[in-house]
UniProtKB/TrEMBL annotation:
Protein name as annotated: AraC-like DNA-binding protein
Location of the HTH araC/xylS-type domain: 190-288
Pfam hit, one: AraC_binding
InterPro entries: AraC-bd, Homeodomain-like_sf, HTH-like, HTH_AraC, HTH_AraC-typ_CS, RmlC-like_jellyroll
Annotated keywords: DNA-binding, Transcription, Transcription regulation
GO molecular function term, any single one: DNA-binding transcription factor activity
Naturally occurring in which organism (per UniProt): Breznakibacter xylanolyticus
Position of the signal peptide: none
Domain of life: Bacteria
């Protein structure tokens, strides 16, 4: 692997975009080599004795070798598949094991949208080291960033921001999959999701669904929300609203009948919740999709 790094100078327009990238790079550090390389500018270069405080976010990905990260909060072992997520204003230092060296990929960025995405509770729980494992998609994100950076075509910062968002998403997905993969609760949640899609018109007792799977509802609800991002009740509600929306758009069925066949007992409750979720009442949505000649009638 050929070493690469590039420090960027984002414009004011780039900074106003919400995410701007300051540095991208990768390096293969052989065993017994001094680390970090002295080619990095001040503000990025650090010695092991002094450590470093950054004014940006950095995501580093270790794909080969082992090492260590130290912060004020503790020491963290690094291995292939480890992600280091560094946040602004936090002292840290890291280095590869002298016996193994390592291969690292990194990208540094700032911006209000970056702060928003990195405030995710699940990411914050796992800081500063996330053991994602080796994922070709994550490596591909870095390589794409390097390619965009080297070409530096007009608007490249905006394209790079999309790569950063995808990278954060892949890391979050890896955390979620690691938490659930191969565990009984994953099967229970998947089975429940399918059940809700198949039986949404019915009067569904979510607590009974949990009991039928020999787990308490409180634990089931908590894990379902961690898996899907919403509670079982809200998931069922979204399924019903989605089905109702399809019927309103694609059929001429009466709105009251649509409410009943999608699991709503009250047309008033259905209309209120439908507007909360879609921004329009059922009647407004149907009016919007009518053909011009039908509206005139």
């Amino acid at each position: 692997m050929k070493d690469f790094f590039k420090y960027l100078t984002p414009s004011e327009d780039d900074k106003d975009w919400g995410i701007h990238i300051n540095v991208t790079g990768s390096s293969h550090v052989a065993p017994d080599v001094e680390y970090p390389l002295k080619a990095h500018p001040s503000g990025y270069y650090f010695s092991w004795n002094s450590g470093r405080i950054l004014h940006e976010y950095q995501i580093l990905y270790i794909t080969e070798g082992n090492g260590i990260l130290e912060t004020k909060e503790g020491k963290y072992n690094l291995q292939p598949g480890s992600v280091i997520l560094l946040t602004p204003g936090k002292w840290h230092r890291y280095r590869p094991n002298k016996n193994t060296g390592w291969t690292e990929y990194y990208i540094g960025f700032e911006g209000k949208i970056a702060r928003h995405f990195l405030s995710n509770a699940l990411l914050k729980e796992n800081l500063p080291v996330i053991h994602c494992g080796l994922h070709e998609e994550i490596i591909a994100c870095y390589n794409q960033a390097f390619d965009i950076t080297q070409k530096a075509k007009p608007g490249y910062q905006q394209v790079l921001s999309g790569v950063v968002i995808k990278l954060i998403g892949l890391i979050l997905s890896a955390i979620k999959n690691k938490e659930f993969s191969g565990k009984p609760i994953e099967t229970i949640i998947e089975k429940t999701r399918q059940y809700l899609h198949d039986h949404y018109p019915e009067n569904i007792d979510l607590e009974k669904l949990a009991a039928d799977n020999d787990i308490g509802y409180s634990y089931f609800r908590k894990m379902f929300k961690r898996f899907t991002g919403i509670s079982p009740g809200q998931y069922l509600l979204q399924v019903r609203i989605s089905k109702a929306k399809d019927l309103i758009i694609t059929t001429d069925q009466n709105i009251k009948d649509i409410a009943l066949i999608t699991g709503f007992d009250s047309i008033y409750y259905f209309s209120r919740v439908f507007k909360e979720k879609t921004g329009k009442t059922p009647i407004e949505l149907r009016h919007n999709v009518l053909k011009p000649e039908e509206k005139e009638e």
